[in-house]
Amino acid sequence: MDKLYNNPWFVKVTSFFIAVMLFAMVNYDNVNNQPGVLPTITNGSYTLEEVPLLVQYDEEKYAITELVEHVQVNLRGPQNVLNLLQIARPSYEVFIDLRNLDPGTHSVAVQYRNFPNEVTVNIVPQTVRVTIEEKRTISLPVEIDLINKAEIKDGYSVGEPIVNPVNVEITAAESILRHVAFAKGFVDIQDVKHSIETSVPVKVYDQQGNELHLNVNPAVVDVKIPVTSPNKDVPLKVNRLGELPEGLSIRSITTDPKEVTLYGPNEVLNEISYIDGLEIDLSTITENTIFEVEVPVPEGVEEVSPSVVNVIVEVDLEEILGIDDLPIEVIGLTERMEATFVTPEEGTVTLTAKASPTTMERLQTEDIRVYIDVNQLSVGEHEVPLHISGPQNVTFQSSLTDVTVIISEVLSAGDDDSSSESDDLDEETT
Q1: How many CA atoms does the CB half-sphere of 58 hold within 13 Å?
Q2: Which of 8, 135, 244, 338 is the right S-S partner for 248, CB 3.0 to 4.6 Å?
Q3: Model confidence over 172-196: pLDDT tens digits?
Q4: Do 62 and 140 have their domain in common?
């Protein structure tokens, strides 16, 4: 069926039959009133208002700056032809031909075509005044206006817009280009929290800020606007999983970079002093190793930069050092309590330290703390875990894992006197 409708002969034949039917309808009354006689064809008139005036000229080279856009067309001829023209609306044209004219102002006759041959055509006006100017192209930088800039949230800053392409070209008549002052695009940044990448149409204005409706190439430009939220640099904490293979010791663990930048609201950043959650598995290390580790994003933080850091682990062959008679510190005692060691009775412990040669050289006894925590323990004998802390990258082993102590209450001098008086009273009563 589509092929049939697209066949030009089918369209022509169908149009012919429609024209015959319309002709018969228009003249039906005349045929009835005069049987056996050909109908009388009367003349009439018809006016076409606001007919577009077409212009033929070299659009690449010239611009038309003065010209009427519409004309009136008065038609006179057989009524049946005029009626058919009103219904069928043939593809008539009213135009002026400027292709052989030079730049300047001219009075040009209005021409027409494709009207029925049976009608007389009268154009009003019959001639029009036309001004032809050569086209010229200028290049203008595109300015970006940021709308609602005052609505940006506290702590956020907006950078200079980056436009691509930087310039646009405007082609028009010389007399029009003299009024062109600047080209602009507009971006709304109300409540923006992230950098913007968008495309905006370009508009052209005169010195008074009136928009000039001209052809701009390109009509749309790409715009990037950097938006920086409140930010803060914080260090990284690396958590170690597993243990190194036997005979190896950590010389150093560092990150590159040492700090990352957090972006987000100030109230969130103020609560963060470092980033935790970076993990490395020591059991996989047999030599100096670099891990690429993704940086976790704390809750409420919009972005972490960089999002991935290198964790650099340097190892050495392990050295072993024995440290004797380190005193065990007791923490958590109240003023009226004291602790007595049962095991070990002397209150000291022997440790074995393992570290790289470089770390071992810097190790001092004063850097090692051995302690037990008796906080909230009641009076009596208790078995308490032994804690050891010392320099980073040093492993400590102890012959003891737990310490036995007796917690007792200390009597003050006042308590001793009261106790003696009580004993004397008891003796007198006896």
Answers
A1: 12
A2: 244
A3: 988 889 999 999 999 999 888 788 9
A4: no
| C-alpha–C-alpha distance, residues 47 and 79, integer Å | 13
Global pTM exceeds 0.70: no
User: Tell me, what DSSP letter sits at residue 85?
Assistant: H
Residue 201 inside a domain? The answer is yes
Last residue in a domain, options 283, 298, 317: 317
Q: The domain containing residue 217 runs over which residues?
A: 135-228
- Residues 236, 224 share a domain: no
CATH number at residue 86: 2.170.120.30
Tokens of residue 204, six digits:
């052209």
Has residue 374 been placed in a domain? yes
Lowest mean pLDDT among 29-38, 41-50, 354-363, 402-411: 29-38
- State which amino acid sits at residue 203: K
Of 161, 202, 163, 164, the C-alpha closest to 183 is 202
- Answer whether 196's CB lies under 8 Å from 240's CB: no
What is the rounded average pLDDT of the residues 16-31? 56
Residue (of 272, 277, 269) closest to 294 by Cα position = 277
d(CA 189, CA 166): 20
